[in-house]
Amino acid sequence: MRSFGELEERVMFQLWAADRPLQVRDVRRMLAPERTLAHTTVMTVLDKLYRKGWLRREAAGRAYVYTPVMSRDSYTAALMHDAWSAAAGPATALVYFIEAMNPEQQAALRDALRVVSLGRGSGDGDHAEDRLHDRSDDRLEARPEGHAEPEPVGQDEPRAG
Questions:
Q1: Family, per the entry (predicted)?
Q2: Which pLDDT score is estimated for 13?
Q3: Which residues, given as ranges, of the chain have pLDDT below 50?
């Protein structure tokens, strides 16, 4: 998966932050504090993102409205997976990644691992962010029988490689 160019990324950030589909003029207005862009420039970027499969496009009167095909978190996860898959030593790369995390990020990783562990085989079709938010409210205290507390991540772990 390729990452976005600078302007594509800025446009995608605006679309991800929006709570509704956006027209070209909406995106242009949202980008205005940072950059002054021509309407046709924004329209071209949105069209390219649509043609690349990153956006849905629907007619709304005489204009189109655009929405992202995937969430920002899903896109980030795909980039992380691609980077990790390309590593010569995936376990070593993962250790370096975890060691670079601050305590809050490590706690988020522990929560995510619990959600994945608890959700395996559930087949409920929930999105990852829904499962994480649903279960992080109670800090995942209720665990099914046979699910032990995962070991702390990145603390006193043997270094791979």
A1: Belongs to the BlaI transcriptional regulatory family.
A2: 96
A3: 135-161
Residue 68's CB is within 10 A of a number of other CB atoms, namely 19
CB 24 within 8 A of CB 45: no
**Residue 17's CATH number:** 1.10.10.10
**Tokens for 21?**
């589909």
Could you give the CA distance from residue 45 to residue 28 in angstroms, rounded to a whole number?
11
| Domain annotation covers residue 11 | yes
DSSP conformation letters of the chain:
-PPPPHHHHHHHHHHHH-SS-B-HHHHHHHHTTT----HHHHHHHHHHHHHTTSEEEEEETTEEEEEESS-HHHHHHHHHHHHHHT-SSHHHHHHHHHHTS-HHHHHHHHHHHHHHHHHTTT-----HHHHHHHHHTTTT----TT-PPPPPSSSSPPPP-
pLDDT of residue 124: 54
The whole domain housing 130 covers 87-136
